[in-house]
Amino acid sequence: MKKLKETDRLKFERQLWKEGYRHVIGLDEVGRGCLAGPVVAAGVVFKPGTVIPEIRDSKTINEKERNALSDKIKSEALRWTVQEGSIVEINKLNILWASLETMKKCVDNLDPSPDYLLVDGNRYLDSLIPYTCLVKGDNRSMSIAAASILAKVYRDDLMKKLHKEFPEYGWDTNVGYPTSTHKRALKEFGYTKYHRTSFNLGTRLKRL
Questions:
Q1: First vs last Cα of the chain: how many Å apart?
Q2: Does 190 map to a domain?
Q3: What is the pLDDT of residues 48-98, one digit of tens each?
Q4: How many other CB atoms sit within 10 Å of the CB of residue 73?
Q5: Residue 40 in contact with residue 151, Cβ under 8 Å?
Q6: Where residue 57 sits, what CATH number does that domain have?
Q7: According to the model, what pLDDT value does residue 34 have?
Q8: How many domains does one find in the chain?
């Protein structure tokens, strides 16, 4: 049987390091499809030559391993940051632009500034810093995958804390995504201050 070729998640970083870039940041966000909670972005810069083979798309990793990898990334990264895009920003800008602005917050938060950006997805904001957008980048770049892990761990933890305030919506398991439990609670109890009112929530009832 022919062995499947393993994904080279350092292809882009290796080339950029070879070209002399020393602060390549991987950028990713989580929570775009949620009905509640902020969108969260993360950025990770690794020292050139760093290899952590177990880093991959956060969606393919179970919670226990994700949490362990998050700690490892924070300890081994040259620099890292996690930023939120608030409900207000999402409702004002729309979710796409709020996501892009939140990734930009990650870039602006680092000192010294990154010298190259690897961005998950197919678009980014105008930038004086050179960048490459990578569709499904969280499975093609170790730096982007690391960012996806940090963002997901942070956001999942946040939604579990918010669940204690409004347990009916099931945020401890669905973390804000539109599951049947979440949609049923919206119809029964209405929307909370943590819901994105620019989204179709299936209810006009505001929870007091």
A1: 61
A2: no
A3: 999 999 999 998 999 999 999 999 999 999 999 999 999 999 999 999 999
A4: 23
A5: yes
A6: 3.30.420.10
A7: 98
A8: 1
